[in-house]
Design goal:
homodimer; alpha+beta; 11 helices; globular
Chain lengths: ~325, ~325
């Protein structure tokens, strides 16, 4: 105790007020000046809830740009809402900062986060800030809304349903390889645009939230691909009690990924199991296929049919170019 | 790729299925087998949302018992729901595990978490598991429910309202001192029971969720004390646009804390600013005081009136034994 110094706010209060309060535009955030947020759910809707933290050195590189880190932290969560057919309602942010994180970093982080929150219509509702002796850790929890009983689960696929994926797969996994071994760019004779495409796809996912209403209208089962198509599709089949054979040649690839796989066919394993795609994997009953394709075209989101669900409870199979089954060393990204 | 090994689940799937799925009893958890949880909010209620992670070496000791860590992780969040007058509805768990965490630890962690989830009627709805190169980090997000527009904010206090706290304050801060300097037990001639009381109060908070309905019925403003009474009460006064003078002698102390402060009066600063109390600080209009006291007595939760709100926007003051103002070096626990 010392004399003369009045009771004042802490550095933590200042940090929240300066960097994060400007993002807390939703009335339920209470200006980040209360213990909790207060959210009034609209009648006739279910809440869709997800938390997926990202950790420096695990999910991103410690020297990644702060605004890219912010976008990834939010987008990996938004991607789950998209896959479930939910519209974003808001998010909570818990951030644990190592001591080397300064004002410039926080400024750029908050700017990137605020831009994405606006773009995806997903306001900051509340959160928490801590110091950590460990790596920068950003834990976002998102809340989405779907009309009651319309959330699209993994478990709704039936024999005959067509299997769709959005965008292109494997870019992030190849981008990570390229980030770790920059000389791969030369080895595979990738041009600057191809290299940047792959690196960007790892660094900042492009969640397919614009497709959420169409997934809800058309799909029987859906999930986002975060741990690789092979493992994630296995989960969807298991949850639905169905199976399938997928011709790997039907899996949509970007130009850059096509070049790399064309020169080293074994890279198809990275494409199918590497993860971090944050694309949609969904099954669509035949009667909805035309409507789904048309809706995706209107949104400007490419979707590709990669196969058909069949009856059976064996694990799904992937076939390579010669028709032989592809068997993966590690079928799905796992932290354990 | 190698031949013969079918696509199977990952270690992460096994970990979730083995340790956490048994806790996911709520139908909205979908058995932890989907991307997200799905929660149907009852009509006429608002959702109260909070995330407050705990980090080894920051909020708890790396060698703390796993079940105690689990309880603290959930309880620091439940405490906020209690203060807002909300009943728990469920939680999401994101856990980042260093490589030294093994099966025994997870078993005990899941057991402690499950027992608390049952006790506080707050089911696990979903979550995420990661490996981390850093310290064990547990990020829980809780959801609570209050009848529409009845959440008790920090901002509702008016001149004349009585200021109440639950339980006793400072135990956790003194318990932390004792944990860091075990010889303080001898210095202050604490008996075994007193030492254990203080150490336990730091390790496992006792959130006052049983008082939530009474806070909602009786209080004008409320928050939980997590960063110390001095700083937290300053926040409540600022949010409400009021002030107060608190006689520090009215702040309720446990036997153990009374012994320590009796022998070293300067320890009142740790009591009032150390934090980790997870007790309720609320203001009660005079007409509700009798009802609040009676309700708390029925719940078996001690509540103590420590002062009265007055008009004014200056920071609240604490007076010491001689009537002189207490001025704190660091009025509130802050990570920054």
């Amino acid at each position: 105790m010392s004399a003369g110094k009045p009771v004042q706010g802490s550095g933590e209060d200042h940090l929240i007020a300066h960097y994060f309060k400007p993002l807390a535009k939703h009335p339920g955030a209470l200006g980040l000046a209360d213990d909790t947020a207060c959210f009034t759910p609209p009648q006739g809707f279910d809440l869709v809830l997800k938390t997926d933290p990202i950790i420096a050195g695990v999910h991103f590189f410690p020297d990644d740009a702060a605004d890219a880190v912010a976008r990834k932290a939010l987008r990996v969560n938004l991607s789950d809402l998209a896959a479930k057919g939910a519209q974003p309602a808001g998010f909570l942010l818990a951030i644990a900062l190592p001591s080397n994180i300064g004002a410039d970093w926080l400024e750029a982080f908050a700017r990137g986060l605020g831009e994405d929150a606006d773009h995806f219509n997903c306001p900051l509702l509340g959160g928490d800030t801590d110091r950590t002796p460990g790596p920068l850790t950003i834990s976002i929890t998102v809340f989405g809304l779907v009309p009651s009983n319309t959330m699209i689960k993994r478990s709704g696929a039936s024999a005959g349903d067509r299997i769709f994926v959005s965008g292109t797969l494997g870019d992030a996994a190849l981008g990570l390889k390229l980030r770790l071994q920059p000389d791969l760019g030369q080895k595979f004779a990738l041009d600057r645009k191809q290299r940047e495409h792959l690196l960007n796809r790892y660094q900042v996912p492009e969640p397919r939230n614009a497709l959420a209403d169409d997934i809800r209208a058309c799909a029987s089962a859906s999930m986002d691909i975060s741990d690789g198509l092979a493992g994630d599709f296995t989960k969807l089949c298991r949850a639905s009690g169905v199976t399938a054979e997928i011709d790997a040649a039907r899996v949509p690839l970007s130009d850059a990924a096509r070049v790399m796989v064309g020169r080293d066919a074994a890279l198809i394993e990275a494409v199918l199991t590497g993860g971090d795609d944050y694309e949609i994997l969904c099954t669509v009953p035949p009667k909805n296929v035309d409507a789904f394709r048309a809706a995706a075209a209107v949104r400007g989101i490419p979707v590709t049919e990669i196969g058909q669900i069949s009856a059976g409870d064996q694990a799904p199979r992937f076939r390579g170019a010669s028709g032989t089954p592809l068997i993966f060393e590690k079928p799905s990204y796992s932290h354990f």
